[in-house]
Amino acid sequence: MASIRPWLMAAAAFAVAFYAVNALHYGDMPLRIEENEWPPMAQAIVDSGKPVIVAEDSHRVRFLPDLRIDPSPFVGAWHPPLYQYTLAAAAVVAGEDASNGLRAIGVLGLLASALMLLLIAREVTPRWRLIGGVAAGLLIVHPYAIQGSLFLDIDNSIYAPLALLAMWLAIRFSRSEGALAPAQVLALGAALALVGWAKLTTTIALVGVLALWWVLARRPFRRSIVEALAFVAAGAATFAVTYGLWCAAVGIPFTYTFDVTFAQKSGRLLSDWWLVDNASHWHLRWLGGAVLVLGLAYLVDLVRHLIATGRPRELDLLFLFGVGVLLNYVLASPTDGTYQGKYAFPALAALLLPITWMLLRERGEHASVAQWLAAAAIGVVAAVAMPDVLVNLSVNGAYGAWSVDLLVVAGCAAALGAAWLLGGRRGFTGGVVLVLALLLVAQGVRSYRSDHSPMYPIPDTSDFRAAAADLNASTEPGEVVIAPKDLGFYVDGRVVEGEDAFARGDVLLAAAIRRYPQITAIARDSFGPPIGPETTALMDSCFLDRKAFGSVGLAYRDRACRR
Q1: Assign residue 138 a region: left if phi > 0, alpha if psi is -120 to 50, beta otherwise?
Q2: Is the peptide bond before 457 cis (omega within 30 degrees of 0)?
Q3: DSSP letters spanning 27-57
Q4: Which of 327, 418, 508, 557 holds its CA 20 to 30 A away from the CA of 319?
Q5: Which of 389-403, 425-439, 501-515 is the most confident on average?
Q6: Confidence class for position 1, pLDDT limits 50, 70, 90
Q7: Is the CB of residue 290 less than 8 Å from the CB of residue 386?
Q8: Could you give the CA distance from residue 91 to residue 95 in angstroms, rounded to a whole number?
Q9: Cβ-based neighbours of 492, under 8 Å, separated by 6 or more
Q10: Is the CA virtual torsion 453, 456, 461, 467 positive or negative?
Q11: Binning pLDDT at 50, 70 and 90, where does residue 474 land?
Q12: Alpha-carbon distance 351 to 319, whole Å?
């Protein structure tokens, strides 16, 4: 171990430095897509203790069918509120206007996830410093983890470490020879309840996989079923009681989150194939072809072991959870937006530790300097040859043929295979890890050099900022702008969010523009949203003062609109 530790420490120092440079870079980028929904709710909690914004206090404007302004409050209970309360705590520290400072929660979440990988590795292998350290290092240099940790949302900040915490407890308790003690049942139930307080939808995959793994891994069989039912019931009861008390305290109906999370999104289940196709492209590109190849290798190893012994291994829990999350958000319930793959972030953290363990679980022969140099050369050549698979990902999922992605996967497999063959029949697993790391770092460098916000790989940040400045310079107090929610967040005056207006109907939006001369500007950026034919025709008659900032188009009212 003494000969490994200096190299491991050097690698860890590089990984931390690489992440820090990227974090400083992306942390200053504008909030995009749906990130802007979180800061106002965090401030509402600071002000009132609950995620509710009174309509008069919001800079957002919504219209009712009769064209009156919607007076209903904005309720932020889309999910259980643990994440929003952590953001509120960060807002107290960072200050009301430091919205980008809220990204510190994601940074801390990523570091906590890396720590949990080390703790889980300590439970399953005597080589935990090496295996856990390498897995944690791969996580914090992965482009998905770097950008995901700087993007405001639940799965890629607090959810991943909490899910890993629950699985760590499960692995620890699964080693008990006798039945689980009541304290262990309650502890595991409390961990599941805490995960539920972060988010419920992804927790479905966690609870299902955990219960199945527990039943298969523990003996005797009947007792394992009773134990699984016990800690799942304890978790459900703890969540229901505590969440119910919170709902009563803040005056939000207990069913609100379930209506938003499940009822309104149930149409995604087994939805159109084009959504599945887009989600498959998206997750493949963000996870990386090399991780996919190694994940398939681990799956083969898992199946062989399961057939031979009839019982899953401890790290199979993490792997199966990662697979479950991907199946959920790629196949069963793909989202309706190309950039919504943030939901699969916990899968990345869960997959990397089993993959690393598979490669490094056995102590191989001491590799020569020539082998390491050869592996580094293979990694560098592969990294240079690989195309940039993230920058300029299309909003509408226009990825083209699968041939490009399959070629990337084949190239990654060839590079990993070549590094393996450097060790002969036993393989050079250290070289495989090195090639994987170089591929991840190379994509991270390409993304860093682009002008885009985290998890929004469209290089239009300069145009976005210029358009926001122009809107603020060209509108007066009391005037209203129609804009995408990300651009609207940076408008000083009141905003009709284009996504909400589009959802309420093109005819209604056009009628509101005619009725309210205070609406003086209409903006679109690379996030959209679509503008219907009625509004387009109206714009062509009275919003003829046009400006373009790259992908951002602005139209200002320059005359009275026809009735």
Answers
A1: alpha
A2: no
A3: HTSPP-TTGGGHHHHHHHHHHHSSSEE-GGG
A4: 418
A5: 425-439
A6: very low
A7: no
A8: 5
A9: 472, 475
A10: negative
A11: very high
A12: 5
